[in-house]
Amino acid sequence: MKKYLLMAALFAGNAFAAPAHSDKETKDDIARHRAMAAAHEGAAKCLESGKKADVCEKELQAACKGLAVGKYCGMKHVH
């Protein structure tokens, strides 16, 4: 667990230290973040509808294909 917390802290510290992006790269990043947010909103609505978590997870994975790293669309939380 400590390893993951350290990795998260290092990532957070380096996330804002990255070299400047061009306007196009910044716009592309914004679009990806919005697409990931929409996919996560869809996953929340899926769960609210009463569908099982594994069904909603598969829908999230499909919506995020090519957008983010990992099977949780760039985000995982604790249960």
Describe the structure.
This protein has a domain at 27-67. The chain has 3 helices and no strands. It has helices at 2-15, 23-48, 53-64. Helix 2 (23-48) runs antiparallel to helix 3. The protein is elongated and about 45 Å long.
Question: How would you sum up the global shape?
Answer: elongated
Count of runs of 4 or more consecutive helical residues: 3
The overall strand count is: 0
Write down the Rg.
15 Å
For the biggest sheet, the summary is: none
- List the quaternary state of the chains: single chain
Q: What is the share of helical residues?
A: 55-70%
Order of helices and strands: HHH
Low-confidence stretches: none
Mean pLDDT: 81
The helix-and-strand class reads mainly alpha
| Relative strand content | under 5%
User: What is the CA-CA span between the terminal residues?
Assistant: 15 Å
For the structure shown, list the relevant keywords.
79 residues, 0% strand, 3 helices, elongated, mainly alpha
Write the layout of secondary structure elements.
Layout: H1 2-15, H2 23-48, H3 53-64
Q: Could you give a short description of this structure?
A:
With 79 residues, this protein is mainly α.
